Amino acid sequence: MRxxxxxxxVRQRCEGSTENMAGLLTQVARRSYKALGKQLAGAAExxxxxxxxxxxxxVYVRFARDNTGRFRLMGRTDLIELEDDDLRAAAYxxxxxxxxxxxxxxxxxxxxxxxxxLDPRLIAAIAPAHGLAxxxxxxxxxxxxxxxxxxxxxxxxxxxxxxxxxxx
Length: 168
Known about the structure:
This protein is mostly helical and 168 residues long. The chain is built from seven helices and no strands.
C-alpha cells in the first residue's frame, strides 16, 4: 500500500512551483548568460576592429548552436523576469565584449549597465551576430548548402565566411 501525503503539502508544492516558474526560468537564463560570458571572455584577445567583432560573433553563434534551448530562453521576454537585477547584470557582463567590439567598429562608446537606450548604430552592428545565431539554432545554415547536411565544423567555416563578407 502506498503512503499518502497530506493534501496541504502537495498543494503547497504545486502552487509554489507554478508561482515561481518565471523565477526558475530567470535563474536558468542568468546561468546561461554566465556561460555565454565565459565563452566570450578573451575570445578576441589581441584582436581589434572587425577581426575582434568576427571572433566574438563566431563564439556567440557557436554558443547559440550548441546551447539552443538556453539561448532561446535568454530571449524569451514572456517567460523570464526582465526586471530582475541579477539577470540584467549577467546579460550585461556576458554581452559586454561583443558590444564593445561592435561599438569599436562604429566609433561608439560601450554602453554602461545603466543605459537608457542603446544607440541604433550599436544595435545595427550587433544585429548580424544575433541573426546568424538564430539561423544556427533553427538549423537553417544547412539550407545554404546543396547537401542540406552541415556538421558543426562546416557551420563554423560557413559562419566565418559570412562574417568575413560582412566585416572584411
